[in-house]
Amino acid sequence: MIPDDQSAGRQRLPSMSDPARVVGETFRDSEPAFPDTPQAPPGAPNVVLVLLDDVGFGQPSTFGGPVAMPALDALAATGLRYNRFHTTAMCSPTRAALLSGRNHHLAASGGCPEFATGFAGYDSYWPAEAGSLAQVLRLNGYSTAALGKWHNTPEWEVGPSGPFDRWPTGLGFEHFYGFMGADCNQWEPTLYRNTTLVDPPATPEDGYHLDKDLADEAIDWVKQQRSVSPERPFFLYWAPGTAHAPLHAPTAWIERFRGKFEEGWDALRQETFDRQVAMGVVPPDAKLTARPEEIEPWNSLSPKRQKLFARYMETFAGAVAHFDAQFDRFLEMLQEIGERDNTLIVFIAGDNGPAAEGSPEGRFNKWAALNGLPEDIDEIMSRMDEIGGPTSYPNYPVGWAWAGSTPFQWFKLIASHLGGTRNGMVVSWPERIGEPGIREHFSHVVDIMPTILDAVGIAVPSEVYGVPQRELSGRSLMASVDGAEQVDTVPRRQYFEILGNRGIYEDGWMASTRHGQLPWEFFGENEPFDKDRWELYHLADDFSQSQNLAEKNGQRLEAMKRVWRLEAETNNVLPLDDRFVPRLSLDHKPYPGLGRERFVYHGRVLGVPEPQAPQVKGRSHSITVRLVHDRLDAGLLVSAGGRFAGYALFIVDGSLVYVHNVVGREVFEVVSTSLPIGDLELAMLFTTDEPVPGSGGTVELVCDGVRVGRQHLTSTVPYRYSYGETFNVGRDNGSPVSERYEVPFPYSGALRRVEIAILSGLGSDQLRAEAMQRDVIEREMQ
Predict the structure, then answer these.
(1) What residues form DSSP beta bridges with 771?
(2) 485 phi and psi, to 5 degrees?
């Protein structure tokens, strides 16, 4: 669509003309006028942008994969499939590029917010000169909403005190409902409505699942927009957590795939490739790339492992298929209200390649891996039917990720190779698209914003809220939407970089270098960058990036390496940083409270992200609570994390209880004697054995200066409890740390004050002296 005169003139947003008012002495000799509000171009389509999480090119049936997605298949049957569409190989960078139209480093998202460092390409502060697609559409007359995963706010700004200008509602979305962060428990999510923490509308026992909830929200929101403001088109950004770990799906959906993956990942990859070629989404001359030596062949696994690993894949497939059914409900609603034909739907089947963080063995609780702790396969086998349900937090083995990237090499995080960056995309617009088909030219996630603005008829603004705008990195794909024209004739260059994995595409050629540890190797060290070996591929003739031409075309390879360097300097990619765990450290980020040793909470406080909470891991500390206790009073006092790792201090059955949950492997419970009635000062003192992550230590429970419970813990959670579960005072949310209570479990008495103090600086001698003093007090009281 060519921008009309009105929209083409909106180079500076917001654009509101001064009304032609006449102001006299009184209203009788005055002429009123209201400011004009922006209107979308006549006939502008509704826009729905769907982004799946951690789904690979070779997984949806729409692109030859084994996971049946009839709704997406139907969308493609009357629309377009893009089989050379690219993402960045990591979630937050892809999302920033998608919604800003700028390369991910230009949007300050060279990694996820958890990996943020103090450099322009990596600090996770969404720059004002990269105005979002939602801002531009809203300021041109659209209703806007974001649902699902939002992982583009600095982690230190997620919480009840904000600031909120880099939340969805600060970046152009009038409505947000979903979760903030990398992943989410689909059964018991930590949810926000706009910027307020809210409870899910139901429980797992009631049949609650987040994907169904998000679909209900999408349907209700669209119906409301069309009912109240039918003249305004809408923009809906729908980003489910599916299929990022944890792989959660209703049992009935998992059972649909029972026995479908028993032949293993080698056979699945070949079957997928054969379907892809037959469907035409992969050219007939493409080569199926070989299995990396780091991945075991399926037939080398024991029958026990094969059975367990197949169950993980059944769960993944059930989760994806279940989301597709929810999406189908949404499509039916659009048809019923008469909005389907003039709705442009862009469905991107994955924000990166399939996830390989699940290790060669898979994980029943992925927080075991992220804390460097092993899992026992025999125990998991005894709980295999729980995989995918509320008591699991699973991720599948890397072999399935490799199969899911068919026919390419590698997977998520490996930005140098297509297994990490090639994702299937479907574009549907019944009113505009005539002949359905496959589009085979190079395209990239930065192309989506210019494509949508082009389709709507809105000019790319030069200024948003007074800030001059950086040029878009992508280009419109509308020429290919309108016909089979291939835009490869126009020179195209695109760089890739994640965690030191690097690549450069230029006019059909791609130079690549895989760098450093593999995605499941969290704690290793990498070789220096100058030892990296570059590869060269002619993607115009080699769809699957299978034939390394570096030795035959050394001169071209050297030229492309120089091009990569130029793009890196232009796009804020430098300095290269291949660290994994060290970048997760809080020490180099501006977290509130970092360095504080005392935290005081005045009554109930909810939804504090773990990095903003008191950092007690590996450190002696105390929790002191002042409250009023009646014999019937019970409830949560303090918690951090949830069922899969964390700690909680609460009152139940008249006793003070402290629980420390070490990723479900060990759950330590310290219970006091019966508490008296009245105004009490309760305390939990943890004295660490060693000031190191994961160290054991001694827990003491104290009531009004008298010890009422004591126990030694042999270990604690070393690194992190969760991405989504939060720190709470007076009430819990998400999943419970202990099965002795049910969320939200608010304390029913008067909670006056909670103080948490880091005691490591006092020294072990003083802590022992304080403990001895409590022994004396206890004996005297007896």
Answers:
(1) none
(2) -55, 130
Instruction: Indicate yes or no: pTM above 0.85.
Output: yes
Number of CB atoms found within 10 A of residue 558's CB: 14
**Residue 485: per-residue pLDDT:** 58
Query: What CA–CA distance (Å, rounded) separates 772 from 753?
Result: 26
Chain-centre distance for alpha carbon 491: 33
Q: How confident is the model at residue 3 (pLDDT cuts 50, 70, 90)?
A: very low
569-620, pLDDT tens digit by residue?
Answer: 999 999 999 998 888 887 788 988 888 899 999 999 999 999 999 999 999 9
Q: What is the rounded CA–CA span in Å between residue 161 and residue 164?
A: 8
The tokens 């927080």 sit on which residue?
A: 367
C-beta neighbour count of 292 within 10 angstroms: 13
What domains are defined for the chain?
Answer: 46-484 (3.40.720.10), 510-584 (no CATH), 598-781 (2.60.120.200)
Site of tokens 């501006």 = 590
DSSP category for residue 363: B
Distances from the Cα of 464 to the Cαs of 38, 129, 134, 136, 538, in angstroms?
Answer: 14, 8, 12, 8, 40
* Continuous segment of H or E residues that includes residue 312: helix 303-336
Task: Tell me the pLDDT tens digit for each residue of 68-88.
Answer: 999 999 999 999 999 999 999
Smallest Cα–Cα separation from 564: which of 510, 504, 493, 505?
A: 504
Residues 440-460 pLDDT 10s: 999 999 999 999 999 999 999
Q: Do 692 and 699 contact (CB within 8 A), yes or no?
A: no
User: How many other CB atoms sit within 10 Å of the CB of residue 419?
Assistant: 30
How many residues appear in the chain? 782
Task: Kindly state the tokens that stand for 695.
Answer: 């160290």
- Phi and psi torsions of 550, nearest 5°: -60, -45
Q: Dihedral sign for Cα 266, 272, 276, 282, please.
A: negative
Instruction: Identify the three-state secondary structure at position 517.
Output: coil
Burial, 761: exposed, middle or buried (Cβ in 10 Å; 0-12, 13-18, 19+)? exposed
pLDDT band at residue 8 using 50, 70 and 90 as cut-offs: very low
Average pLDDT over residues 555-560: 98
CA distance 48 to 153: 22
Residue 552 tokens read as 């035959």
R_g over Cα of the chain: 28
What are 459-473's pLDDT values in tens digits? Answer: 999 999 999 999 999
Is the Cβ–Cβ distance between 20 and 469 less than 8 Å? no
Residue 457: exposed, middle, or buried by beta-carbon count in 10 A (0-12, 13-18, 19+)? buried
- Neighbouring CB atoms inside 10 A of 571's CB total 20
Question: Please, which residues bridge with residue 506 across strands?
Answer: 493, 509
Q: 595: exposed, middle or buried (C-beta count within 10 Å: 0-12, 13-18, 19+)?
A: exposed
Picking from 261, 271, 502, the residue whose alpha carbon sits closest to that of residue 406 is: 271
Q: What is the DSSP string of 332-357?
A: HHHHHTT-STTEEEEEEE-SSS---T
Give CA–CA dist 721/734, Å, rounded. Answer: 13
Alpha-carbon distances of 663 from 114, 187, 566, 721, rounded to whole Å: 20, 18, 45, 8
Separation CA 758–CA 208 (nearest Å):
39
How many Cα atoms within 13 Å fall on the side-chain side of residue 25?
Answer: 0
**What is the DSSP secondary-structure string of 393-410?**
B-B--HHHHHHHTTTSS-
Note the pLDDT of residue 522.
81
CB proximity list for 156: less than 8 A, separation 6 or greater: 589, 590, 591, 592, 611, 612
CA–CA separation, 416 and 630 (whole Å): 62
Quote the pLDDT of residue 383. Answer: 96
CA–CA gap between residue 240 and residue 347 (Å, rounded): 12
